[in-house]
Design brief:
alpha/beta; 5-stranded mixed sheet; 34% helix; 24% strand
Length: 477
């Protein structure tokens, strides 16, 4: 299916309308000689901005407009390369740069309070659905399966590409892929030198996504993550205004390195971004580009001067992964390859649009009530006060997993089923997802700590004792 680059109006005079970028150079503004002509009631300049496409890559530059051109909140001072999902602000008009199918290009949302009609702006003709709300096309099970097969092949290519740079750690890489397609975030805990940061950097390199790294330190401030307002003075008029400078959280893949080395106030700056996928600063809300994936690392040693993550923030992470030592053979290979002049060339294997589509398809995958009941029962069994809680939980656990654990068990089970090539989610998929989903949501008490009992051992006891729902669970009365 052919795709078209276009601009979709998020906010402004005609929200929902799409303008195709159907020429090498496309100008936008209120004047009639622009290729995209905006309504006269818009606050844009007559000739506001220019979009240029070369070798499939599009950029935008300001044409000396009165109010300026902004991309993701940053003022455009020179041509700015665009990626799908970038938001372009032209005075009161906010547009998003997209790549859509030719069929979707004709499907738009009618402006609020107005009937949609066929219309033409400049040389870009756009057909509007008269009086109808847009809705995604329904896909048959066969079409969904075909899409998933193609996307899973791309995901396998990503894993293979990571394997060129990372020796071993296949289970960790697999879990990263599970979290990525489940739209979850990951906390990686391991000793220094186990390639945690390298693994995340490599993942970002083989995905066609923007990547930023934050080194968490005791003096890091919340504004260093989310961004800050700066005062600007127009030299010509003397007018003062504030402009928001976006922080490193405005990216697709964010590496929060040694997240426990910064105070809770700064750690909390990530909470809204991880849960709501937007940032609020000075009363304004700024959406984050999708996909958005937080990967945090933590060193279990050197706890002096660190700040353990509070339970509320731990619960935002879908997985907690423990990165262990490599095998002897793998360590020999690591030593041999890293002490030579070997250089690995990595290729981009998956785009952001493909990841977003895969995330949607995974969430659409149906789950039987039997599997839902088992996942719920498993999460509830981690709570000491639950009647089904095993003796190990009642003895050693102070606080168990909440409802978010059940949600993540099901999402991870869906992703696991898809990645093994099946559209049927079973209880085994839930069991495989249980350790990384539950280990940071179960908190041991003093008795467990004094006896040297760890959470992973308790999870294995829970998995052994909690049975799948049987026939009597479905009997009436």
């Amino acid at each position: 299916m052919s795709t078209v680059k276009c601009l979709r109006v998020l906010e402004g005079t005609e929200p929902g309308r799409r303008f195709p970028l159907d020429a090498p150079t496309v100008t936008i503004g209120r004047a009639g000689d622009n290729r995209i002509v905006l309504p006269q009631e818009s606050k844009t300049s007559r000739h506001h901005a220019e979009f240029n496409g070369e070798d499939g890559e599009w950029s935008v530059r300001d044409l000396g407009s009165m109010n300026g051109t902004y991309v993701n909140g940053e003022r455009v001072e020179w041509p700015r390369v665009l990626r799908p999902g970038d938001q372009i602000k032209l005075a009161g008009e906010v547009l998003v740069f997209e790549e859509v199918s030719a069929e979707d290009l004709t499907r738009v949302e009618p402006p609020k309070g107005r009937q949609a009609t066929s219309g033409k702006q400049g040389s870009s003709t756009v057909n509007l659905d008269a009086g109808k709300e847009p809705h995604p096309p329904e896909h048959s099970a066969e079409e969904t399966a075909a899409q998933l097969r193609v996307l899973i092949q791309r995901l396998e290519a990503v894993s293979a590409e990571i394997g060129k740079a990372i020796i071993g750690q296949k289970e960790i890489v697999h879990s990263l892929m599970l979290a990525l397609v489940s739209r979850g975030h990951v906390l990686m805990i391991g000793l220094p030198g186990l390639a945690k940061t390298l693994m995340i950097r490599t993942l970002a390199e083989v995905l066609d996504l923007r990547f930023r790294r934050i080194q968490f330190t005791p003096d890091l401030m919340p504004a260093d993550i989310t961004g800050t307002d700066v005062l600007e003075i127009d030299e010509a008029t003397g007018r003062k205004s504030y402009r928001f400078i976006r922080g490193p959280v405005f990216t697709n893949i964010l590496l929060a390195d040694e997240i426990n080395r910064t105070p809770p106030k700064t750690q909390a700056a990530l909470l809204e971004a991880m849960q709501e996928y937007h940032v609020t600063a000075a009363g304004e809300t700024y959406p984050l580009s999708q996909p958005f994936f937080v990967l945090a690392t933590q060193n279990p040693l050197e706890q002096e001067g660190t700040y353990p993550l509070p339970e509320a923030q731990l619960d935002r992470f879908m997985f907690s992964l423990r990165v262990d030592y490599p095998s002897e053979a793998e360590e020999e290979q690591i030593a041999s390859s890293t002490t030579s002049d070997r250089h690995v060339e990595l290729a981009k294997r998956m785009t952001g649009d493909e990841i977003l589509l895969l995330q949607k398809l995974v969430r659409r995958l149906p789950v039987s009530p039997h599997v839902v009941k088992y996942a719920t029962r498993l999460a509830r069994a981690t709570r000491p006060g639950d009647p089904r809680a095993p003796e190990a939980v009642r003895k050693w656990i102070h606080c168990g997993a909440g409802p978010r654990a059940t949600q993540y068990l099901l999402l991870a089970a869906k992703a696991g089923a898809v990645m093994r090539g099946s559209l049927v989610v079973n209880c085994a998929d839930v069991r495989r997802a249980a350790p990384p989903v539950l280990r940071h949501r179960m908190f041991t008490n003093f008795a467990a700590d004094s006896e040297g009992v760890d959470v992973d051992g308790i999870i294995q006891k829970v998995l052994k004792e909690v049975q799948e729902p049987g026939e009597k669970d479905y009997q009436a009365g």
